[in-house]
């Protein structure tokens, strides 16, 4: 169990990136959602002990992660938003090299682990190809393989599906959910659907704070029966709309569809509609104009 208590961080430039974050993260896949700049990467990097915090505490199974950074890192796998690769090095050679850097010094067991990981992430047949020439999805799967070196107990994955096409994304989802059966996985993303498809627990961050936390289905269930939808009138603007709390608006076949939160139908045009995790998200962070 990873426990964060009142974690705060202000960068030297004065940006208050984390403001008293408290979270308890157990086994399975934990989704961390939030808009750009919410503080997700800052939190990930802090949990990975790549940057300090100004206040608060983080423990893993009751042990302060900053008390013994080396042993925490040995139990940690991290896939950052952008990870560089050496040009020209094959997947197998690069993974072997990264394994060595991670302290896997015994050649035979290192090779065995490298090969097993390449199989696990479905890159075995591409093991002799240069990682620098991989597609986005293959690269991310390689990223998971490198993060899993040394059998970590905690895996941190920061916005992994950006730029992946639907097929690659779904392959990546399958891999991540299989991994999530064995280790604690924290997935940071601003794609609500990622969390919907993968995560058993989640939190939403906004402006450095956790503004919503729970089980995705429960959070959606809390809004059930209170979400209404209607076409937005031509003269109407996002802010002068009638009753109910506006959640979001989307274009559908050239018309703007408005989603509202209200205890009963706000007007004759609104129809009840099934609540979604996106409604939970917009309710937590506030409507986007
Ligand atoms: N090293 C840094 N020095 C100064 N400010 C930073 C640094 N890293 C992040 N910030 C600022 O801290 C805030 C939180 O950024 P962070 O990258 O943690 O958010 P995020 O939720 O991961 O966003 P994104 O989805 O865009 O990656 C932002 O205002 C950002 O500009």
Verbal overview:
Belongs to the ABC transporter superfamily. GO terms for molecular function: ATP binding; ATP hydrolysis activity. Keywords: ATP-binding, Nucleotide-binding, Transport. With 289 residues, this protein is an alpha/beta fold. It has two domains: 2-219, Rossmann fold (3-Layer(aba) Sandwich); 225-273, no CATH class. The chain is built from nine helices and 14 strands. The protein has helices at 40-47, 69-74, 91-101, 107-120, 136-147, 166-179, 192-198, 216-223, 277-285; strands at residues 2-10, 16-25, 28-33, 55-60, 63-64, 76-79, 154-158, 184-189, 201-206, 209-214, 227-231, 245-252, 255-261, 271-272. The chain has a six-stranded mixed beta sheet with strand order 6-7-8-3-9-10, with helices on both faces. A four-stranded antiparallel beta sheet has the order 2-1-4-5, covered by helices on one side. Strands 12-13-11-14 form a four-stranded antiparallel beta sheet. Strand 4 (55-60) and strand 5 form a beta hairpin. The two termini are 38 Å apart. The structure holds adenosine-5'-triphosphate.
């Amino acid at each position: 169990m990873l426990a964060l208590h009142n974690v705060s961080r202000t960068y030297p430039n004065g940006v208050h990136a984390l403001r008293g974050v408290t979270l308890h993260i157990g086994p399975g896949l934990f989704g961390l959602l939030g808009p750009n700049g919410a503080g997700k990467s800052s939190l990930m990097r802090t949990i990975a002990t790549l940057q300090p915090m100004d206040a608060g505490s983080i423990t893993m199974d009751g042990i302060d992660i900053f008390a013994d950074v080396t042993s925490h890192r040995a139990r940690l796998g991290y896939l950052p938003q952008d990870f560089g690769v050496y040009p020209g090095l094959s997947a197998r050679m690069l993974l072997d090299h990264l394994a060595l850097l991670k302290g896997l010094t015994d050649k035979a067991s290192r090779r065995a682990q490298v090969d097993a990981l390449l199989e696990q992430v479905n890159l075995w047949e591409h093991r002799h190809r240069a990682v620098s020439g991989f597609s986005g999805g293959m690269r991310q799967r390689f990223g998971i393989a490198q993060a899993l070196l040394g059998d970590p107990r905690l895996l941190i994955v920061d916005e992994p599906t950006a730029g992946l096409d639907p097929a690659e994304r779904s392959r990546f989802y399958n891999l991540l959910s299989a991994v999530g059966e064995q280790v604690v996985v924290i997935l940071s993303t601003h794609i609500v659907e990622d969390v919907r498809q993968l995560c058993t627990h989640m939190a939403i961050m906004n402006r450095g704070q956790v503004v919503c936390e729970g089980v995705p289905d429960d959070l959606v269930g809390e809004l059930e029966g209170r979400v209404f939808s209607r076409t937005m009138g031509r003269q109407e603007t996002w802010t002068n709309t009638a009753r109910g709390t506006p959640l979001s608006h989307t274009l559908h076949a050239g018309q703007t569809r408005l989603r509202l939160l209200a205890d009963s139908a706000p007007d004759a045009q609104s129809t009840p509609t099934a609540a979604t995790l996106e409604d939970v998200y917009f309710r937590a962070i506030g409507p986007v104009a």
